[in-house]
Design brief:
CATH class of the largest domain: Alpha Beta
Structural class: alpha+beta
Oligomer: single chain
CATH architecture of the largest domain: 2-Layer Sandwich
Bound molecules: adenosine-5'-triphosphate
Helix content: 10-25%
Distance between the termini: 40 Å
Strand order of the largest sheet: 5-4-1-3-2-9-6-8-7
Shape: elongated
CATH topology of the largest domain: Alpha-Beta Plaits
Largest sheet: 9 strands, mixed
Radius of gyration: 26 Å
Amino acid sequence: MTVVGLDDTDSRERGMCTTYVATEIAAALSERDDVTVDRLVLVRLNPAVRYKTRGNAALAIHIEDDPDVAFSVARDVLEKRSETADERTNPGLVVADHDPDAVPDRVRSFAMDAIREQLTIEDAVTVATDSGYRHWGLGNGRGRIGALAAIGAWAALEDWTYEYISYREPARWGTPRAVDEESVFTAADRGYPTVWDTIDRGEGETVCVPHTPGPILHGIRGDDPEVVRTVANTIESEPVDGRQLFVTNQGTDVHLRNHGSLRFASEPIDGRAYRLEGWVASEPATRRGGHVFFELAGEPPAVGDGAKGSNTPIDETATGTSPRLTCAAFEPTKRFRDRVRSLHVGDRITACGEVSGGTLKLEKFAVRDLVRTERVTPTCSSCGRRMKSAGRNQGYRCRDCGTSAEEKVDRRLERDLEIGWYEVPPCARRHIAKPLVRGGFDGPTHPER
Ligand code: ATP
């Protein structure tokens, strides 16, 4: 058995796609030697990597072939197809001559690190060489990081999904795609929930059809290889040049590190993605551009911070010095921002997303405990008007009626949120982020579709 790993073939401006190159290599190998391709694996690596062109994808081909032949054929195709006129395109190829499951521990953990950490080209070259793998690169050969990770991923990961990609005729690349939208909506509805992120109902968008200049016509994602095929086959469009099924780690949340409470967390680090527990510590605020921000704290807000009434007692001893992290829902997350705006100081949540520039970019969050009341200045029982402060530590008084109250009173809060998970809509989903509809979450879910 041979495993061929490859990465970094395309350019943002010129368009290409590593899935397409992998499909070509698989076709060239199976035609030449009449050998069986077992599967093509599409692995999404750390979405926070700055070298990525778009979705940080790397590919592996599992094939019953001679590793030397596989290496030279793959290299030929990579040399021909890679968009190396773009200096940021640095293709890499790694070939392993073992069963896809028989990955050495170092390669397995390299794959996990490539999904959650930042690695160097030297890391990849050392591990590939020590493992006895053939490897090759163009430019600075950075693609060897993804190529090696794509080999290790098969043994490192457990949760797999599918994408069935339909490709365009080469003469049409770069021209507008002719896809019948209605047929996409109908097919997506039929396939849901096994097939997900095909469309965004709220935005009326066909998410499965890319806007970039590359060879992909559409990609259908889901949990069952037969259903993704069926959905793709019922979409009406321009002629399809070829189709390929990929086994992927898309829609799995495998990039998230489970960090527990923000209170006990060592500082969250830029360039990684986390799942963090904490308390909403500032009212969500919408800033210029429509982005929504709030502070997450590692302990409940202190008395007097304005909210109480969740099952979590307000912490009388809270110092206000626990770790804090700014969380953001950016404008492209659309209606998700309304969910974030509905959060209130004192709500206990689990927040998921990548930390960048010290800010957690929310992909989803779970409401664990909702604040049900807030502390407000009392109203006068005679005239119904809001009382005024009677001076420092002297309670409140109605200046007209003379009535008084010692302290603020509880007022019931109407909440638009329920306990459970909320997520960005399909149009804003990162490839690797798990849609709630896939299930397996530790609470009720409120899926977007
Ligand atoms: P493509 O469609 O070509 O795969 P892409 O968005 O996946 O586009 P690439 O062009 O592959 O982006 O560029 C990503 C680069 O970053 C690759 O060279 C890959 O080896 C490298 N890379 C991937 N993960 C990591 C990581 N965790 N640390 C450092 N570099 C990484």
